Description:
CATH architecture: 2-Layer Sandwich
Mean pLDDT: 97
Pfam families: rhaM
Low-confidence stretches: none
Organism: Mucilaginibacter gotjawali
GO molecular function, one term: L-rhamnose mutarotase activity
EC number: 5.1.3.32
Helix content: 25-40%
Strand content: 25-35%
Protein name: L-rhamnose mutarotase
Amino acid sequence: xxxxxxxxxxxxxxxxxxxxxxxxxxxxxxxxxxxxxxxxxxxxxxxxxxxxxxxxxxxxxxxxxxxxxxxxxxxxxxxxxxxxxxxxxxxxxxxxxxxxxxxx
Length: 104
């Protein structure tokens, strides 16, 4: 199982809306993530900095690369682009994090 961590940035003042949208995550998006081999996925918010910390477990992290080409993923990015720092294609600017410690 691969562990993947990354950080993104929420636009200040959008904490409640970000939570709401994820509480109402689209079933077809959840299905797509599971089809890509993701078995756990969490996002944490640092309220002082508006930084989002994402962590997921995937059967094979190379399968995650195919998500960007999926129409449902592109629609989700567009839906979220008004409350996050994004790239020109509306994908969130995401910085991978290097694992420096793990205690199984």
